[in-house]
Amino acid sequence: MEDPGDERLEQRAVIKFLFREGVSGNEIHQRLVKVYKDDALSYSQLREEIKEKRRRKLSRKVLLLHDNAPVHRAKVALAAIQQCGFGQIDHPPYSPDLAPSDYFLFGNLKQHLRGTVFSDDNELKSAVQDYFNSREKNFFFNGLMNLKSRCEKCIEVEGQYI
């Protein structure tokens, strides 16, 4: 027989996963009841779990990744970052391979638009907007998640271009 503590932990993992996927609390509860039947967490327990997840999510510090542009190093910019309570990740100089806009965002966009001829700026703007609107929900998140492995790779190759 399974330990009730293990089952609760398992349900919490399911809640965490579905919450991150953007599934509503009501839908999460319906799924839990469908699978765990009478052993499913109550709706009020589920709501408490979700509240806690939101609290933790809000309490995480926002980190900004800046390149070394003078505007990002200006005293007024640094003061604003500190005033907002944000943290800052220093960007190694001459490392465009660590900028998500370079290694992920614009490379994919250029690939998508390659070979297309636009009659004016508005047509181009519309195509770019359509491209971003058509991306899957996790597209941008996944691109940013690659940053950690790219930083590790950069350290591994002692700062050489990756």
From TrEMBL:
Superkingdom of this protein's organism: Eukaryota
InterPro entries cross-referenced by the UniProt entry: RNaseH_sf, Tc1-like_DDE_dom, Transposase-MT_Hybrid
A molecular-function term among this protein's GO annotations: nucleic acid binding
Alphabetical list of Pfam families matching this protein: DDE_3 (PF13358)
Domain Tc1-like transposase DDE: 39-124
Name of the protein this chain belongs to: Tc1-like transposase DDE domain-containing protein
Organism name: Trichuris suis
